[in-house]
């Protein structure tokens, strides 16, 4: 199958929505990352998503809707907790987990009785969903295990000839995926940190919120997807949890072993560290830019000849929690050094 590149104008959104209705898969932009969409009520169409990505079948997909009315058609109840979060953050980078009423295909939810739902804050995404009049299941549009795509070109690199079309909406804004929040119980539980921060949620709910990922292990994840290797660049990446002197020492150590060292660092550190390839992701103060640049940076090392990537740690506050969650998953291991920062 050859993959069509479609600029997102009215005509192409219409074309893409027809493909969805016919049970084909189409990649589309959202405000977080590109999604790989198919009709969430069509089991055969959903199977194509899992095949194209090489995704394990026990990892459920998020269903994308154009508005709250459409969302209410697929759940037993929009709980008061969910309603508060939906009112505050949707459309936006938030996914709520609610009880499914069974209308969503079984392979979307991986057999669970719950379903993840979100309304993306991207005009093309919502127009596509509206035009198809379907709930659109969409994981990130990358090969399983690779960094999520933040541009149409990233999607093409991973899924060329495996999907019908890519709707090109330019680079995405947030750059990390939505925050997944379990709203089935009396308390909200964060299953994956993302574009909406823990502080944002606590501010709206006026109560402390549990982040289940803090104590998460790969054997016992709260969110099924979090147990797999994720976001991996093509080269081993070591996360350096230390001050700038420690980081420089590590660069020298690897270089003295004859290795070509790639750096994934802030602009501050880039100014005072000498790697063989240096990719910056913004300043330490501007964590939103770091989130926006992270996946592109991880992918960029593929085109270089570095033997190892040394990556800086960022402060785990606000969107920094999502950034560090992804960097830890991408890393081969964390090197804990002196901490003066
Ligand atoms: O920003 C995003 O959320 C992007 C864009 C495309 O919308 N999508 C995305 O989908 O990141 P994906 O499939 O890469 O990640 C979905 C995450 C996985 O960790 C999965 O396990 C979790 O959501 N998830 C989905 N349904 C769930 C459920 N019923 N219960 C618990 N976790 C669920
Ligand atoms: Mg993903």
From TrEMBL:
Location, primary (coarse class): cytoplasm
YrdC-like domain residues: 10-196
Gene Ontology biological process terms in this record: regulation of translational fidelity; tRNA processing
Cellular localisation: Cytoplasm
One cellular component (GO) term of this entry: cytoplasm
Binding site for L-threonine: 32, 64, 138, 178
An MF annotation (GO) of this entry: tRNA binding
Entry keyword set: ATP-binding, Cytoplasm, Nucleotide-binding, Nucleotidyltransferase, Transferase, tRNA processing
Top-level taxonomic group: Bacteria
Listed Gene3D superfamilies: DHBP synthase, Threonylcarbamoyl-AMP synthase, C-terminal domain
Positions that bind ATP: 55, 59, 114, 118, 140, 148, 192, 231
Reactions listed under catalytic activity: L-threonine + hydrogencarbonate + ATP = L-threonylcarbamoyladenylate + diphosphate + H2O
EC number, as in UniProt: 2.7.7.87
Pfam families per UniProt: Sua5_C, Sua5_yciO_yrdC
Protein family according to the UniProt entry: Belongs to the SUA5 family.
Protein's job: Required for the formation of a threonylcarbamoyl group on adenosine at position 37 (t(6)A37) in tRNAs that read codons beginning with adenine.
Protein name as catalogued: Threonylcarbamoyl-AMP synthase
Organism: Halolactibacillus halophilus
Lineage: Bacteria, Bacillati, Bacillota, Bacilli, Bacillales
